[in-house]
Amino acid sequence: MNPALEWLAEMDEAGFREVFRGSPIRRAKRQGLRRNAALAMGNSGEGRFLPLLRKMEREEDPVVADAASWAAAKIGFRTTTRTA
Description:
It contains 5 helices and no strands. It has helices spanning 5-10, 13-19, 29-44, 50-57, 62-83.
């Protein structure tokens, strides 16, 4: 399974419960899944994720917001160094 990172990051609680019913991923909880999606976006270095990561930075959940900030900064750094 190789789901789209955007889909995982924007999944709501009801969708998470439905998709991952009976799956060990439920142990990580939705928060952990979204945090990991943000980290994967940052590690990808793909600038197309920046708008979503900027949105995630404003979330109330500090774990998701911090991961999104890290990821956005990493992508921003890669974008800057590639064009320099």
